[in-house]
Amino acid sequence: MSFSATQVESYSDTAVHIVPGPILLLGAPGVGKGTQAKELVKIWSIPQISTGDLLRSHVAQGTELGKAAGALMQQGELVPDSLVNEMVARRLQEPDTARGYILDGFPRTLPQAHWLDARLAAQPDALPVVAVSLHVDYNQLIRRITGRRNCPVCQRIYNIYLNPPRTAGFCDVEGAALAQRADDREEVFAERMRAYNAQTAPVVEHYRTQGRFAEVDGDGAIAAVAARIVTAVERLRS
Ligand code: AP5
Ligand code: MG
Fold first, then answer.
1. Which residue ranges have their beta carbon within 6 Å of ligand 1?
2. Which residues of the chain have pLDDT under 70?
3. Helix/strand/coil percentages in the chain, nearest 5
4. Which ligand is nearest to the CA of 26?
């Protein structure tokens, strides 16, 4: 689902016209980070930087990083901080990040958060991050993960139960056959949740204590959740 022009205009002018700066989308696997990042891209015209998507692209291309990351990702474990930080550092050098960017799935460990904080602190003109932590209950996470399908061409995200394509199995826009992620099996999801609770939950607490932090209910229609995030970011940037 996506916003029509009228829906985007329905956000307050200040929300749409603020300089968004760096926005972190935090939350458990399947909570909707990627789905919401794509909505925010449309509103603010800033890039989504998904470390999961970047890593999957390295795996698909068979790069050295992809070779190091692939097996860990299939097991639901995190990729080493040094590799991920380096990948993010390269992406942040691109000029499309000047007005802001949405970090989806990064930082995911305290060392990654400290690295990002230090990097931003070293740039006197950089806006501080605002962090949004999304939540849905565990049963909803399972449904979202097991029902997820992706378009391999345009990366649109569907869900066979909750957000199905118009024609089962095919992307609405590209017509390509939809694919299921290798790590979207229940046993791998359990491992991803263990990694999230052990390594990423402390990152949420880190940003909570820094202020500029909002907890957002990720349940409900995609547009409704996006509206909550936009309201939160507007408030945190004012
Ligand atoms: P990553 O790709 O980031 O996976 P994740 O965090 O587990 O999150 P997901 O992508 O599974 O979920 P999401 O929150 O984006 O949900 P989505 O919007 O798709 O990381 C994968 C792996 O890469 C990691 O396990 C790790 O190995 C490695 N990695 C990545 N970053 C790393 C880092 N920083 N450090 C180290 N390792 C790293 O939505 C899910 C489903 O729900 C979809 O089907 C969607 O259609 C549906 N849905 C979403 N919102 C709604 C809604 N409101 N209503 C109905 N359905 C909805
Ligand atoms: Mg994602």
1. 27, 29-35, 51-52, 55, 72-73, 76-79, 84, 105-106, 108, 112, 144, 147-148, 157-159, 162-163, 183, 192, 222, 225
2. 1-15
3. 50, 15, 35
4. 1
